[in-house]
Design a protein that fits this description.
Length: 251
């Protein structure tokens, strides 16, 4: 009896990140210094307490291939977060691109850092051109259905956030330029301060205790705790000596 051969899965037949281009000469919206520093800040402070480091992927300026019917179509978000997908632990496994039909998981959050040349595209104000790929807004909202989309304009200090409700994005009402993402147990907001020796207004993650500390801030907190512990030990030793007790001879 004839047994039909089932089709092979997309993971075996579709182009992979090794087959798809990761750079395009002359492409608009490529990162400047601000984009690089801001992306680093988001990645460094993105520490969801309910997800391990093996359960999240953060990426910046990494091509996002989204349509298996048009395998050369992609967007390049300034920063995005994927839940349930791990970052590479070995250098040889670092991604060239993020290919949704291979990974099997769409991004949970996308952040675009608005530039004068990309404003209309970032905010869904540009119509799709004939015989051209869909706009960012159309891809994030209608194709990938990314639950959260954030746009930050550093020129106007303007933060806008959108939540996918039904089939379309709905603006999130911000309180003090902040909003909370319950699934992550984290919030995203604007913070004034210095990061990587650059002072300004930055997009930063916070938790129920406050702003998530950077590695440098964590190191500073550790030094402060060590200094405080040393001072307490010195005060105790001085008190013991005042009582005629040699602290060095304590059992």
């Amino acid at each position: 009896m004839y047994q039909p051969i089932p089709p092979r899965p997309p993971q075996e037949t579709m182009p992979t990140m090794y087959d798809l281009p990761s750079e395009l000469v002359g492409e608009s919206g490529l990162p400047d210094e601000f984009h690089c520093i801001q992306a680093d800040f988001l990645s460094e402070t993105c520490q969801p307490p309910n997800y391990s480091s093996e359960e999240i992927l953060v990426a910046s300026d990494l091509n996002l291939y989204y349509d298996p019917r048009h395998t050369l179509w992609y967007k390049r978000p300034d920063w995005y977060l994927v839940l349930g997908v791990a970052s590479a632990s070995q250098q040889e496994n670092l991604r060239l691109s993020y290919v949704v039909w291979q990974e099997g998981v769409d991004p949970f959050l996308i952040v675009e850092l608005l530039s004068p040349g990309t404003e209309q595209d970032d905010l869904g104000q540009r119509l799709r051109e004939v015989n051209q790929p869909p706009t960012k807004w159309e891809v994030y909202e209608g194709i990938l259905r990314v639950p959260y989309y954030v746009v930050y304009d550093r020129y106007e200090n303007n933060l806008r956030a959108f939540r996918l409700t039904g089939t379309s994005y709905e603006a999130i009402s911000l309180t003090e330029n902040r909003f909370w993402l319950e699934k992550l147990e984290l919030g995203l907001g604007l913070w004034q301060g210095t990061y990587q020796q650059t002072t300004g207004l930055w997009l930063r993650w916070y938790n129920t205790a406050g702003w998530v500390p950077t590695l440098a801030e964590q190191a500073g907190q550790e030094r402060q705790r060590a200094e405080q512990e040393h001072e307490r030990a010195e005060r105790l030793a001085e008190y013991l000596r005042s009582q005629g007790i040699d602290p060095n001879n304590l059992p």
